[in-house]
UniProtKB/TrEMBL annotation:
Alphabetical list of PANTHER family matching this protein: SEPTUM SITE-DETERMINING PROTEIN MIND HOMOLOG, CHLOROPLASTIC (PTHR43384:SF6), SEPTUM SITE-DETERMINING PROTEIN MIND HOMOLOG, CHLOROPLASTIC-RELATED (PTHR43384)
Top-level lineage group: Bacteria
Stated name of the protein: CpaE family protein
Keyword annotations: ATP-binding, Nucleotide-binding
Signal peptide interval: none
Length: 409
């Protein structure tokens, strides 16, 4: 397998007198590849590691901490914005990203700027390319520019009533994003009085990090924030704190203060807000501070009423957050007290994802298995949910079958 680290080392060893700038080019055409190589060599800059532009290649090789600039050629793209949205979660926040494309539209520049990416219009001369790259590198040196604006996307998983599976969904999403999608994730536990997050994460002898009133007044930086997390895998960390002296509201504010520091080194921050850990005060925060709210409910009257209140409150707060409604069958479908049609009519909103009842779920969790990896109907629903979060076209699979069966019951 081609190793980006070896490519970078080889480039450095072969040109010891060159200007030091660690970069990588994911190219689509030989023309762009040759121009970039020639321009860098002519100016005495270490040539980028050269790799074919594909999602799998980017996923495997772009996360080296030494990479300063990533060049992505999209000259063959029919929609530059859509393609960058698709791969944005694969790109590390510490690197500056230059998109090279032939799409001549102000909207493209604006859209990429909002995502924190630079745009270089093709065709371009060697000198224009080098000047652009050096300007981006100067911005990095001054700690300014678009590369400094990219922070983690925030996803809140909200449980409408206790026991609807919000923690389960939060963990499955976190595992799929980190292990399968190769996206760096931080999972925040907002249940300060207990909770089962460690069970769903498969962590044994897990203890939350203790905090005191004095630690809240000390200077918080990235190093300290990182020390308060626990690694679950190479791409996933969990932030779970506890205190004998601080009240829940103070702990919640402390968690979010730490998460702001950690946002620069993660693609996603997921907040587990199961019913026992959420409040209307949280909704006011989530309405504008989060990018996506995964509203999770079960097919019961009490859960439906709570979900409707959440949607109503979001409207009152003029929420900018994108809301995804997940109907999770925590009981056999025949035991549901409301149908999907009744739910959609009452919420005045379509159900985005239906998770069918899975009787083996509890046993599999205790065995340390993850449902998103399996071949059960609920696994396909979880895969669809992750795709929606990434802005991808979710595979059709069997979702419609689940919904039709639920409607019949």
């Amino acid at each position: 397998m081609l190793d980006l680290v070896d490519l970078l080392k080889n480039n450095e060893q072969s040109t010891t007198q060159e200007e030091k700038l660690t970069s990588v080019l994911f190219h689509q055409s030989e023309e762009c590849k040759e121009l970039v190589e020639e321009a860098f060599r002519f100016e005495g800059i270490v040539t980028p590691a050269i790799l074919q532009n594909s999602d799998d290649t980017i996923r495997k090789h772009v996360r080296e901490s030494t990479i300063e600039i990533v060049l992505v050629e999209l000259n063959m793209s029919s929609d530059v914005t859509a393609d960058m949205k698709r791969i944005s979660h694969l790109l590390p926040n510490h690197a500056s990203v230059i998109v090279i494309g032939s799409e001549d539209a102000i909207s493209t520049i604006r859209n990429l700027k909002e995502m924190g990416f630079y745009y270089l219009f093709w065709p371009v001369s060697k000198q224009e390319l080098i000047d652009f790259v050096r300007n981006v590198n100067d911005n990095r040196t001054r700690n300014s520019g678009l590369g400094q604006n990219r922070t983690a996307k925030r996803i809140a998983i909200w449980g409408a009533k206790g026991g609807v599976g919000a923690t389960f969904l939060a963990c499955e999403i976190a595992f799929e994003l980190s292990a399968k999608k190769n996206s760096s994730c931080l999972l925040i536990d907002h249940n300060y009085s207990g909770g089962n997050l460690d069970i769903f994460l498969g962590l044994s002898q897990f203890e939350k990090r203790p905090v005191t009133p004095g630690s809240m007044s000390s200077s918080l930086d990235l190093s300290y924030a990182t020390s308060m997390t626990k690694k679950v895998n190479n791409m996933l960390s969990v932030l779970a704190i506890d205190s004998d002296e601080l009240i829940e509201a103070e702990l919640k504010e402390y968690s979010r203060t730490l998460s702001k520091e950690l946002a620069v080194q993660n693609n996603f921050i997921l907040e587990d807000l199961s019913s026992s850990a959420n409040s209307r005060g949280d909704l006011k925060y989530l309405a504008t501070a989060c990018d996506v709210l995964v509203l999770t409910l079960e097919p019961t009257v009490s859960s439906l009423r709570d979900a409707a209140r959440v949607i109503s409150d979001l409207d009152k707060h003029r929420a900018t957050v994108r809301c995804i409604v997940v109907l999770n069958y925590t009981m056999p479908e025949k035991s549901a007290t409301v149908s999907t049609e009744e739910i959609e009519k009452y919420l005045r909103q379509a159900i985005d994802i239906v998770c069918p009842f899975e009787p083996k779920l509890g046993a599999m969790v205790l065995e340390g298995k993850h449902l998103y990896q399996q071949n059960y109907p609920i696994s396909q629903s979880l895969n669809r949910l992750t795709s929606l979060l990434l802005g991808q076209n979710a595979p059709k699979s069997k979702k419609n079958i689940f919904q039709r069966l639920a409607r019949k019951r």
